[in-house]
Write a structure and sequence with these properties.
Layout (H helix, E strand, L loop, with lengths): L2 H4 L5 H8 L7 E2 L11 H12 L12 H15 L7 E4 L2 H12 L5 E6 L3 H9 L3 E6 L1 E3 L2 E3 L2 H7 L4 E7 L11 H14 L2 E5 L26 E6 L12 E4 L5 H11 L5 H12 L1 H24 L4 E2 L8 E6 L5 H12 L1 E2 L1 E2 L10 E5 L6 H15 L1
Parallel strand pairs: 1-13, 3-4, 3-7, 7-8, 8-9
Antiparallel strand pairs: 2-10, 5-6, 9-10, 11-12, 12-15, 14-15
The protein binds pyridoxal-5'-phosphate (PLP).
Length: 382
Amino acid sequence: MRPEIQSLPASRIREVANAGIGRSDVLAFWFGESDEVTPATLRDAAVASLQAGETFYSHNLGLPELRQAIAAYTSRLHGAVDVDRIAVTSSGVNALMLAMQMLAGAGDEVVAVVPVWPNLTAQPAILGARVTRVPLRPQDGAWQLDLDELRAAVTPQTRVLLVNAPNNPTGWTLTRAEQQALLDHCRGTGTWILADEVYERLYFQGNGVAPSFLDIATPDDRLVVAHSFSKSFLMTGWRLGWLVLPSGHLDAMGKLIEFNTSCAPVFVQRGALAGLAIADDFVPGLVQRLQACRDRLVAGLQALPGVQVAPAPGGMYAFFRVQGQDDSLAFAKHLVTAHGLGLAPGVAFGPEGEGWLRWCFASRDPARLDQGLARLADALRL
Ligand SMILES: Cc1ncc(COP(=O)(O)O)c(C=O)c1O
């Protein structure tokens, strides 16, 4: 086995979840998904596709009508994006892996803004690239980027700058000015930007769409944007995403998709097409529900003594720390075994997250959050 694979860390979130296995009384907030089922119109479209016999291999790059609909959706949010820049992928994580395969190989340097969802930094490591971590830092519970530190880390030797904003787990989001500064810098160093913008619609400020690199880049910039149907359309189990590529890169991506998954399932794509058709009605309502969950949870956390947390501008997580609890894995395991509260340990997102805990607040029934808060309050009284 290649040493890169042998040395991959196992998921610390799974480690905590395994400690609660077989217990039906655990309130689980550890994974990054809502407990709301996918809207019925999307499920109906997928069922209709299967009933119609759409069970065959399909285009490498996705159904032309889905790619067209994604291009139209993206253009509505960010200004004109041509369909010749859109590739449909088998999930967001697959989109990110395909992009990394296209951009970085053994010995290449990748700079990543961290803490971050661990899959992002594992992917270049799998490919044999070296990952340099540039940390966000908390100020009163809210996480900030040191732009000068990041610019100093990205040099002409840097192949890829990996940035996830809105960020999982912290909720940190790049400002437009920071995006412009990074784009200008990367144009100078010749570095690709791989932007993970899967949470762009789960954004609680302004017009409800987080600033995107697509707003400011040209079609010829070295920019790849990764997206997912998982979060904004409640489609986590369906495994569908997409990439926005620079002009002229679609044929290469089609080959990579052929050698990875060959194509995404047609019935899944039909569900997504139905999702895009209702996006303008559905997504704002979802975000409103999420914001109510966020506000309820963060207010509850802030009321507990010794808890440090700030409302995140985007995403679906409260990232918080409890005074005196510096070992997040041990604390998360204690919370699940002794109190039936399932949270993700901050160290799962890198050493920068040590001492913190992530709570996914995407819940159909906000009363579950109150129950979870009561369990945490119990734990803190010990
Ligand atoms: C930051 C980030 N990017 C990408 C993904 C990928 O989502 P999926 O593979 O479900 O499309 C996730 C999922 O949790 C995520 O948190």
